[in-house]
Amino acid sequence: MSGHSTYEPKSGLERWLDSRLPLLRFAHDTVVTFPTPKNLNYWWTFGGILSLMLGLQIVTGIILAMHYVPHVDYAFNSVQRIMRDVNYGWLIRNLHSNGASMFFLAAYIHMFRNLYYGSFKAPREVLWILGCVIYLLMIGTAFFGYVLPWGQMSFHGAVVITNLLGAFPVVGHAITTWLWGGFAVDDPTLNRFFSLHYLLPFMIAGVVGLHVWALHVPGNNNPTGVNVTSPQDTVAFHPYYTVKDGFAISVFLIMYAVFVFYLPDALGDAANYVQANPLVTPAHIVPEWYLLPFYAILRAVPDKLMGVLLMFGAIATLFVLPWLDTSKVRSMRYRPTARLYFFIFAFTCIVLGFCGAHAPDDLVIPGVSGPQFLDANLNSFVWLSRISALFYFVYFWVVTPLLGLFETPLPVPETISSPVLSHPASAPAGAVASPEKRG
Amino acid sequence: MLRKAFAFAALGLALMAGPLFAGQALAATTQAEPRDIHWSFEGPFGKFDKAQLQRGYKVYREVCSSCHSMDLLYFRNLGQKGGPFYDPKYANPNDNAVVKSLAHDIQVKDIDSDTGDVISRPAGPADKFAAPFPNEPAARASNGGALPPDLSVMAKAREGGPAYIYSILTGFVAPPKGMTVPEDKYYNPYMPGDMTSAMAKGAKVPEGGFIAMPPPLTDGKVTFDDGTKSTVANEARDVSAFLAWAAEPKMEERKAFGLGAMIYLLIFSVLLWFSYKKIWKNVSH
After folding, report:
1. Which value does ipTM take for this structure?
2. In this structure, how many other beta carbons lie within 10 angstroms of the beta carbon of residue B203?
3. Interchain CB distance below 8 Å, B272 and A284
């Protein structure tokens, strides 16, 4: 896709095809000879893992759709029928439901890797934005998918989330009615959510195509954040990264398999094994773990509309990140101050996840009744969410722009190869790593 | 490198496990932790105890089934692989003699194909477990307004699973001093609830809630054919195990398949690791 193609058709048939539709040339240039920085670490293997997860989710999903019945009277039992009577249905369903969690886990690691190594910066802004689009589509797909088993959490989760749109003035009510296809979450809602749940993954696949395209124009970033300057800095994608990604995928699959075979319900909610009943609201409505941080931001704000806007704002912020970061240095390896804030930020996201899992009034430190501050107890998850949500936005809108202007980064190596030879991890014992002195 | 791989796998696990251990404590609702009880089907190699499942089925049939339906279960399930009455002689559970006779004991509603009249006939292996009540209002009318929930997936539908069921069944205690128990309700510390309004002013509010089900099990209520002592604890334990099986009849298949998958993936990972080392041998990075 970029640079000079080295593909040489070997047979008559390949030559014939090459002059009509250079499909094999495209494949060769994309996954075989594509020059890839030779210093990519394991954090770079999650792109491959994510491609695999998308493929797996689509394949298992298509099979599930053959047996699933999108009707409020039959949906719950049809899922149970898959677990009980369909040959290997339990396997397909466990792969699919746990696959969603694995997909998000890999996506989050992929995104945090991106933040740490500054991969979103020029010339990869479009690549990053496409990634954000994929993430948005993933959230939509996961939400629609969670509604399909028609358990208590499915139903009431759908009610809570669709009602959020009702917070918008004037049009909000009309939007929710339109979305539901009626005046409550009911059969029409389930049917359209099923339809959309089937559609969105193919849209994701399409954007993934663009994402890979946008990756192959500037090429990979790398842990040093320094541009590739010579062929010595790179290796061919195959076999070097096919085998490294392959190993990482295999290790990832082991963890995935632990959940599928031994903890299939650990990531789900027990309430979703109770058939949806609009008349009985679960005491505690929570989304799946991967959406908890956003749920915490939503509930941190007393005003519904502001909460919704802030929640969407948390994702919208990601889209403009390339223009918020003022630092010329990509990798945080050479930005000790930025690195500190990055780790605080990552920790904040986990704290927000905790907050999302708890009822807002629960005490953070049990047994300690903290002082009342404004409308809530200072020791409650409401206040922890507020402080964390504040830092979430401060990190992107204040810390990130200012750091680039005021921090003093460490010396950055001139080329990828120079620090590679002296990186502490690969240097022989006793050797002193001092990339900055090598010039 | 390998160390790093493990490090990120561990980090991933930690990231995911975080919300799990966050707990689901509720503002006012409390319940006692389910009793810690050992099950034969725990762990990656755990299997159901067939004799226990058979006893459990008997408890369900003779006690629970008078109020609770199990709509997702068919009699044939009892004779399928991993089921309480599985017999390798009958690859098709519909042929299983024990299952046939167990089903035959139960009357199910059907339509006479000649007259179209509603009739009753003995069930066969292909029939569902018959529900005790024709519909929800009938179930409520017979149970003081409360609806006995379907038990098909009960062992997955409550935090704690079979331990929760066991705890409820064995957890009925005399209400503590100062508690006003409503008519047709029973205090059970393992039932989620909020006892604040039921307690006299100043009395300590205990964990637990009211349940509409009267204590269903008594010593000697069910006679076990294998000589197991018919205590409340044994009956509760066996029926909880039976419900765990009913909630996921394919559990043994899942774990057996998982063992193969894990061995395959481990060998595959080791091979890929050495391939990786070999291919990258001459690249400094």
Report:
1. 0.89
2. 13
3. no
